[in-house]
Amino acid sequence: MATPPLVSREIVKEYRRFRILVVGKSGVGKSSLIRYAFGVTTTISHEDPGECKIDDELISEQNDLFVLHDSMGFEPGQEKNLKEAEQFLDKRSGSQVPIYKRVHAIWLCIQTPHAGGRVLETGDEIFLKLAAAKNIPIIVVFTQFDKLFDKHLFAPSAAPNGNLTDPKFRARCLKSAEAELEKNCVRPLKKMSPKVPYARTSDSDLSRSDMAAVANVIALTRDLLEKDGSLVWVMSAMAQRASADTKIKASIDVVLHLLTTRVGYWSGLAAGAKFMGWNLEKCLDILHSEIVATWNFLDDDNLLMSSEFVEEIKKLIQFVVPGESETTSWFGQNLDKVYKLVGIAATVTAAVAGPIAPIAVPAIAGVGLSVLFAAYLGKVYQSTPETLRCLMAYIVDLTLIMEELFHIALACRPVRKLTTEDIGLAVKNYVESHAEKVHSEIRSYTRASKLPNILRSRKAEDEVKSLIAKYRRGDQDSADR
């Protein structure tokens, strides 16, 4: 039986790239926003702001899943920019334009005022109406909020005893800055365009609050794109490198839902009707490829698709597959460790073989890949509790490991190339934190639920979502500056 195209590949084939138009005056913070959102270290913009052409397609070698169009703002006396933007939207919108050529979203960047002055220009209002008329999702991003916060932080005699790090004082400054933003920015925007969503960002590098702010922009974009019923939101989720929340949502939807609607070879997680005739190893390979593709790591050496990493995930999920009465025959003398489901201290090895180090992963419970488990993976797919546990564990374990890896390699700025040590640390963190609990809950679920009932519903998919939500870290918490 031929393997149908992967959903992630079909999405990329249809949309090519996530196409975004970023609008704003020079120096407003567009480059910082793009670097944060898409995890690129180089500024993909025009060398000379005076030569800015909105039609130019700007693509980064570090992340080719998005294409940027750059437009200057609409200051008084610059009607040319507004006219060019209108012509651009005419060419890049509408059902007659191929979907991969359309603008998928717009970020209108407006500098947060910190010394008075007009926030929204007449051109901004006209442009917002143009975007609405073309039915293009648009978000207003108030940039450089950090400067407004600093105005309150460094106000003369504002800090008690001159202590600028006092948490209560900083909280008051943040509250004051937010109130000023609401008065001078949000209210005028709502008066102008009541339904347009907005967000705020800052420009300081390596700040947790900046990452949370950009993740919010990503989430707002995702929500707007998802409303139109197309899958372009998945393309945007794959391209972005700022929000683990959005990565996980895309990964789950691709695996649990889009496989049904797009390709038609998965009829529910439990039933797996179209998996019939395949061996389980092939099923797991599909899951692995789909999940890894949505995360879009800077993985030049293709480490996440290596046989070494795939085998380590299999070593982890093997513990949840056999029934309790079969564990002795599967794992023999390591039975005491197996019952704890990898709930032990792990070590990381760092041997080097060739130009690329092998995946540096924990010695999971001191057990290799069981011979019986390897034989089990060679069997043809059958709807059994063991198969259900296997699929559930693979999806949850790999997704949570991907999130760990996100916070190690993608959430940092600048984003860096993935290493075997990064992967080893991500697996180690998951093994030592949640693997035992996840596997225990999967076993409890399949014991408590009758298989025929599971097969007639999507409850197993709901359980997978619930486990991921329960044990994941989430996007970086917001923190005041």
Distance between the termini: 56 Å
Overall average pLDDT: 82
Enumerate how many helices there are, as a single number: 19
List low-confidence stretches: 262-267, 341-355, 477-481
Largest sheet: 6 strands, mixed
The Cα radius of gyration reads: 25 Å
> What would you call the structural class?
alpha/beta
Our estimate of the beta-strand percent is 5-15%
- Strand order across the biggest sheet? 2-3-1-4-5-6
Q: SSE order in H/E notation?
A: HEHEEHEHEHHEHHHHHHHHHHHHH
Shape verdict: globular
Give helix % range. Answer: 40-55%
Helix-strand blueprint:
Elements: H1 7-15, E1 18-23, H2 30-38, E2 58-60, E3 63-71, H3 79-91, E4 105-111, H4 122-133, E5 138-143, H5 145-153, H6 167-192, E6 198-200, H7 208-226, H8 232-239, H9 244-263, H10 280-295, H11 307-317, H12 327-331, H13 335-338, H14 371-377, H15 385-410, H16 420-433, H17 435-448, H18 451-455, H19 459-471
Helix pairs in contact: 3-4, 5-6, 7-8, 8-9, 9-10, 9-15, 10-15, 11-15, 15-16, 15-17, 15-19
